Structure formats: C-alpha cells, structure tokens
Amino acid sequence: MSDLDLLASFPAYGDGGPVLNDWDDAEKSLGVVFPEHFKRFVGVFGGAKFDDFLRVYRAGAENQNVDLVHRTLAARDTMEKTRPEIRDLLTERGSSPSELVRWGGTDNADLCFLIPHEDPDRWAVLTVIGRGDEYDLYEGPVESYLLRVLRGEIVSEVFPEDFPDEEPSYERNPWI
User: Fold this and answer.
1) The whole model's pTM is what?
2) Residue 170 in 3-state DSSP?
C-alpha cells in the first residue's frame, strides 16, 4: 500500500466527490511543472482539513483562502521579505522563495511548502512556523511527510504539541 493509500485510510468525514484542480493554470501561473505524485495527492486531499487544523489547498479554488496559486504567490513574497533563514536554506539548495509552492497551511498561520527540483522525485517539503524561526525540512513527497507526522513518526518543530490528535482524521471538502 502506498503512503497516499495509507493516508487516505484515516477516518474521514464530510463531502465526498472528485476534487477538481486546474493544473494547467496553476503550472502556468507559478512557472512550475508539478510531479504526478503531487497531483494525485491534491486530487485526493485538495480542500481537506486534517484534525481540524491543517488545510490542504487545491489548484483553482474559487475561495482564495484555499487556492494553491493565490496562497503560493502571497507566501513567496512573504518568504522573500521576512524570512532570511528560509532564504538562506533555499539558497543552499539552489532554490529561492520565488520557486516555493504553498500546498497547505494551519489555523496557527503555519505555512506548508514544496521546494521544487528538476527531478520530480527530489521535491522536498518545507513547513514554516507562522511566527518564529522554526521550520521542518522533509526530503520526500507530501503524502509521506504528512503520513509520518500524523502517525507520530516525525515530531514537527512547527506544529503544536496537540497536533496530531491521538486518532487522526480528516474532513473532506472538495468544493471549498
């Protein structure tokens, strides 16, 4: 079973149905070609909220608060202007804030990013605390990172001690 399948096996509630994403517009607007595994992840979890705390965005949402493109463009500017430690980390990796893709966020204003790479298998996950200097860097796909956080295999420097719940779940909301 893949990490995506394992993540999808967590208890879920809310609306079922397909998650619609506008990948052509997202890739054009952000200047990136998304790996297929990320598209599958957002195809399953776009609009979902894990443990009533961490929201996954989707490409083409009418609500700008959960639209991957809108949230990414705003966050790139923030990371460039206010987070020198993130700029330095990205520079070491041969990247910059202008390349980050924001795939989600939390109720505490924490930011969840992808760091693109020319090799689709080498994209990394970067989670940045909303207020402070803490961040997590995970070398691998979003679904693997999120699965390990929810299982307690990774203790985040960013997320609060009460996340995840003892029995993690998620709310499906493909239309948000």
Assistant:
1) 0.95
2) strand
